Amino acid sequence: MKRGRLSLAIAAICVPALALGLGLCLGGTESAAATSRASAPAVTGLFSERTVVISCLGRPEARPRGLTLACADGNDYLTGLAWTSWDARLASGYGTQVENDCVPYCAAGHFHGYPVLVVLWGNAALRGNPGTLRYTKITLIYTGTRPKVLNGHPGTVTDSLWAD
Hints:
Layout: H1 3-19, H2 32-35, E1 42-44, E2 47-54, E3 60-61, E4 67-68, E5 76-86, E6 90-100, E7 111-125, E8 132-142, E9 156-160
Parallel strand pairs: 2-8
Antiparallel strand pairs: 1-2, 2-3, 4-5, 5-6, 6-7, 7-8, 8-9
């Protein structure tokens, strides 16, 4: 995925969010070298904050290479994640969503991969960890083939993430 396309996709989310006053996308982005440091905290004002995503096992993770979206059965997950930015307000990257079609039923279903841009956003304090924030929302932007969801093939899907 070319960075220009990722920037355009993120702008497509950020501009409407700013218009609604959501305050998303206001933070600066880190360089690719900085995003590869899994334990590096983001510095905001006088306080050092670490921003994480909660795995379905309840573990806080920074810049994970994979993320399970359907913890109960493992039929939907992200793999091969590469992060282009990760700060207190927004994380963006790309990877592959792998989803079971559950046809004729989930145990006999087939897994299919879909290329996606991933945006983690919204944050809340991580209980029991002062100075650590967790992302609360995920948006998947499909860049190629798309899974069938309810009444069609959406271009984007936004959902809540696991709580701590």
